[in-house]
Specification:
The chain is α+β, with helices and mostly antiparallel strands. The protein is built from nine helices and 13 strands. Helix 6 runs parallel beside helix 9 and helix 7 packs across helix 8.
Length: 404
Amino acid sequence: MARVNRETSWGDGHVQTADDAIRRAIIEDYGVVGRAPEPDLEGLVQLAATVCDAPTAVINIIDDRFQHQIAAVGIEPAVCSREDSMCAVVFRKPGHTVIEDVTLDERFATNPFVTGEIANVRFYASSPLITPMGVPIGTICVFDETPRELADADSEALKLIAHQIVDVLELRRLTRELGESNEQLESFAAQVAHDLRNPLTALAGYIELASEVPEVAGLPAASRALARAESVADRMTGMIGRLLDYARVGGAPVRRTSVDVRPLVTSAVEDLRTAGMADGADITVDTTVAVDGDPTLLGVLVQNLVGNAVKFAGAAGGTARVEITVRPTIGGVQIAVDDNGPGVPLAERELVFEPLERGSNTTAPGFGIGLATCRRIAESHGGRMGIDDSPLGGARVWVVLPVS
């Protein structure tokens, strides 16, 4: 998988950046690419064609490589490269686009959809599809092979249809997630019961062993057994504490204020060094903006992200390196934590966000609750979270939180 900081120029003048990772994750959440057209989306694209009196209308989803036509009237839905897409030229720019004759517009005059290589478009109008986070993911567009005008009322109607398309995508996502959450809750309960049963059994065994040792001669053995019991009890306490952190997120209201991430990182690093977990690690922080959110919840999020990165950094040998950056990005402000650890395989990048799940690249201690808690915190703020390759060689874990 390409690293998110790699810059790749496309024919539309686009340079692939970390913003594309966010857009790609949102598109994947909607689950419409590569599927049969949704009836509701087919109805809206038909409405766009009718309102604008156009022979062809298309809903386009545009990722970092392709334009996916997920519903269409007048043509069969297809996929084309982003470089050939007309909508890719304008969908990231604010506003509505109406062009009476695209052969007179230097942005489109040589486009294959105009020159006859793919089609012979002359009239073109489009409205961007903007998610609730403010991220553009595509367009609803109408076009014709004959130059013509579009009435103001019809143009406004196309904008409204774009909003309705996003509402349908959001409803589809929420419905699917609600269904999945019930299954996950049942699985989560079973996993918790299993993971707590093991240390409980060990605890009972050590206490029983201590109780059976002769009073005088067995004191050292009893002491060792009780010390092991105490260790198991501490492990259980840690697990239960992390489970409670996970459960509490979403239960309390999010109190938003402007939060400087740097002191949160400093506090997290001090705690790690006190515990002997960050000795010798090279940890840097680069913040250019404040984050809009709940200081307490963001403190938990940063503590988990930094702790996780330090745990895996330098696993292949050498100095452990962790870089934390906070930057404005598409849809809000991004907190990114990079490390030089083993990384997370592409196939596991969703799995590791599930409670009590841990990646195959780790032998480090932990309960698999930290990333699940972080995702709940991000979602409670209306944000999102993902994992990509890091320029340091390991993983980049990123969180995007919207601006109020």
